[in-house]
Amino acid sequence: MKAPIDTIKIVIRDEAHLRAHLDDFLVPLDLALEWAGLRLAASARREGWEHFDFRAPRPVGKGGLARIRIWTRGDFWARRRGRTLPSHLIVGEKKPTRRLCVWGLWQGDGSFLLHTLYPGSAAPREIHDPELALGEMPAALKFWSSHAIVVGPSEWNA
Question: Interior CA angle at 17 toward 14 and 23, to 5°?
Answer without folding.
Answer: 135
